[in-house]
Amino acid sequence: MEIVYVYTKKRSEFGRQCNFSDKPAELHVDILPDPSLTDNFIDRDPCDVAIQCTQEMSEHEVNTERFDCEPCGINHVEGGWPKDVNSQEMEQTIRYRKKVEKDENYVNTLMQLGSHMEHCIRQNNTIDIYQEYFEEEEIVEEMEGQPSAKTVNVFRDPNEVKRTATSLSWHPDGSCKLAVAYSSMEFQKVTKDMSYDSYIWDLENTNKPEMTLKPVSPLVCLEYNPKDSHILIGGSYNGQIAYWDTRKGSQPVEMSAVEHSHRDPVYKVIWLQSKTGTDSFSASTDGQVLWWDIRKMSEPTERLVLDPSKKGNLDNALGAFSLEFETTMPTKFMVGTEQGVVVSCNRKAKTPAEKIVCTYSGHYGPIYALQRNPFFPKNFLTVADWTARIWSEDIRDSSIMWTKYHMAYLSDGCWSPARPSVFFTVKMDGTLDIWDFLFKQNDPTLSLKVCDEALYSLRVQDNGRFLGCGSQLGTATLLEISSGLCTLQKNEKALATAMFERETKREKILEACHREMRLKERSRSEQSKEDEAKDGEAEESAEELVACAEREFYEVVEAEMKKRGKDDKKEKEKYERKLGKTVSNENIFMFTDYLNTSSQEF
Amino acid sequence: MAEVEETLKRIQAHKGVIGTIVVNAEGIPIRTTLDSSTTVQYAGLLHQLTMKARSTVRDIDPQNDLTFLRIRSKKHEIMVAPDKEYLLIVIQNPSE
Fold first, then answer.
1. CB atoms within 10 A of CB A282
2. For residue A77, is pLDDT > 80?
3. Of A78, A111, A125, which has the smallest distance from its Cβ to B40's Cβ?
4. Which of A167, A328, A508, B59 has its CA 20 to 30 A from that of A379?
């Protein structure tokens, strides 16, 4: 059904009707050309017209339809069947298979393949080719060849007049700085133009020290504060203690008062373990050990006189040469004396008499170095006269291990912080010895001639890799040792423990034997005294004993000289044969000296 | 025909052998001791792998040819003996 809307309107209301009529054409306007207008224009002559005689072409863009790629996996479903075989139908597939199996080629191939395959199967069954044979064995790291040490850097005393580098101290964090104390240890050899300065060297720069420390009197020993790496404490030749802050400059921040300091050069100063990190103690050959708090240097906080008779008598006191303090045992400390005796002391004792706990004697000369083994604090190393000795705290009479008597005086030594069985010593002939007593006990594992003059001080850096030695002419040499000597070997701790225990036991047994023998002797002599009291046998007087000792001494010396003479003669003959002429006697001594030194150098 | 049967039976009887498949050049499993779906999987995949292995060997040295292919996995070992037309596949659990 259509929707229609009808409306009506009168004709008169929507306008008149249109009436169209025809009319002929009429000319309305005719404009004729005006030749005067041509004056406004110029003829262009010539006219450039471009003509091209080519095919006319038009440009047209086309884009092919994009080819859509999509990566996807393939799931293998049965396939490969020839067209006439429907893979779903069991019958057809079976028939096809049977047909293939009848093929001769198939039979031959399969026989061949089968035998090949059987061989491999049998192989698999017999042996597991991927069996891990050495699964549990750890890879033993071989020590790279010979132990060696090489000089990395040499720091020479920049002054004209060379002084001895008497003490070295490594910077506590990392190994970038080395503080060296310089002083002249020879009695009254200090000249007017000898400088008093000590230096802090940066390990990279050997031309100029990083910082100079200017004390009032040359420093004999110098230590960095392990807790605060800017603070150093130094003991000087005139007995005073001074401390520096590297941030504040070259002058000491404070010095101890002269009246209350030592009366002899301060040979060793060590920082103590304390909450404030400001305590230290110092030792000197005047027989005193003084404790200081660096905040108040006018007076020592405590004083100990090393009098073996325990009376605090300064005249009897033993001069202290070296100190030892282990942070794991804060109440005990040890002092090495000039007389060759190590005194073990207890800090916490109430009376001075109780402070000195016991003494260990066994050296013939001043003890230049004293250090506990960082891994076995019960054992300590002493370096003095011509030997280095290792002691156990329990055995007082003698050391448990010692090196042979060397040709030159030993001047300093220390344990390696990385390996419990390695320690280092330096000698007056300028050689550095590295000892590893788990490897070899008679001789050093490595002996290196560092310089021609005597070496006076030695310090190993905390990682055990670098060590610095100071010489008589103020040259501090920095050496790097091979990794075999500074990495802990397998079982090393156990072996070292076993060795120490063995030696300690041996000494204990010897001690017990001696005691027994002495007891027997005493009881026998007492008996014999009663029997022979009537005979009036006079005891040997002291002079006779001395004369006897002298005689024996000269005999030994002469025997040694005779032996030397024989050796020299032999060498002389060898040398003469080499040269083809006779050699005078003076040349022989030089030659034998050369031989001796060359035999010491590994 | 009988020898083939005997050979295959012998192979299957060895210690540790889990299954045996014979595949032809088109990848159709002719003979198998495993179930159908596993067989199809092994046949298709190993066929391609063997082709690849062979082409690799021949690319490196054209005189050379692939004689045997062994794939050792955590669980077992797949051994493929290839030929021009057929492929013998054996899955074995090697002795531990």
1. 28
2. no
3. A78
4. A167
Structure tokens that stand for A432 in this block = 């550095």
- Give the tens place of pLDDT for each residue, A200-250: 888 888 888 888 888 888 888 888 888 888 888 888 888 888 888 888 888
3-state secondary structure of A281: strand
Residue A503 CB neighbours (<10 A): 20
The larger pLDDT score, comparing residue A283 to residue A11, is at A283
Tokens describing residue A300: 């020592």
pTM: 0.56
- Can you say how many angstroms the Cα of residue A546 is from the centroid of all Cα atoms in its chain? 52
**How far is it, in rounded angstroms, from Cα A253 to Cα A251?**
6
pLDDT in tens, A134-189: 766 665 555 556 778 888 888 888 888 888 888 888 888 876 888 888 888 777 66
Does pLDDT of B60 surpass 90? yes
Residue partners of B9: CB distance under 8 A and separation at least 6: none
Residues of B with CB under 8 A from a CB of A: 1, 3-4, 7-8, 10-11, 14-17, 22, 24, 26-28, 30-31, 40-41, 43-45, 67-68, 70, 72, 77, 79, 81, 83-86, 88, 90, 92, 94-96
Q: Number of CB pairs < 8 Å for A and B?
A: 97
3-state secondary structure A405-451: CCCCCEEEEEECCCCCCEEEEEECCCEEEEEECCCCCCCCCEEEECC
User: For residues A445 and A484, what is the distance between their CA atoms, to the nearest angstrom?
Assistant: 11
- Strand ranges in A472-539 using DSSP code E only, listed in sequence order: 476-481
The token pair at A178 is: 């080395």
Which residues share a beta bridge with A245? A231
Task: With beta carbons under 8 A apart, name residues in chain B contacting A103.
Answer: none
Cβ contact A476:A209 at 8 Å: no
Per-residue pLDDT, A601:
44
Q: What is the ipTM for the molecules in this complex?
A: 0.82
Q: What are A58's two structure tokens?
A: 């038009």
Q: ω before A209 within 30° of 0 (cis)? A: no
Among B27, B45, B68, the residue with its CB nearest the CB of A80 is: B27
pLDDT score of A130 more than 90: no
Q: Is A37 exposed, middle or buried (0-12, 13-18, 19+ CB in 10 A)?
A: exposed
Nearest Cα to A600, choosing from A460, A407, A468? A407
- E-assigned strand segments in A218-318: 219-224, 231-236, 241-245, 254-255, 266-271, 279-284, 288-293, 302-305
pLDDT of residue B50: 92
Query: Taking a C-beta distance cutoff of 8 angstroms, is the pair A339, A321 a contact?
Result: no
Q: What is the DSSP letter of A331?
A: T
Residue B52 binned pLDDT confidence (cut-offs 50, 70, 90): very high
Give the integer Cα–Cα distance in Å for A163 and A360.
33
SS3 B31: strand
What is the band of B71 on the pLDDT scale with cuts at 50, 70, 90? very high
Q: How far apart are CA A346 and CA A356, in angstroms?
A: 6
Q: Is the pLDDT reported for residue A516 higher than 70?
A: yes
The separation between the first and the last C-alpha atoms of chain B, rounded to the nearest angstrom, is: 35
C-alpha A420/C-alpha A591 separation (Å) is 39
Write the DSSP symbol of residue B60: H
- Contact between A395 and A511 under an 8 Å Cβ cutoff? The reply is yes
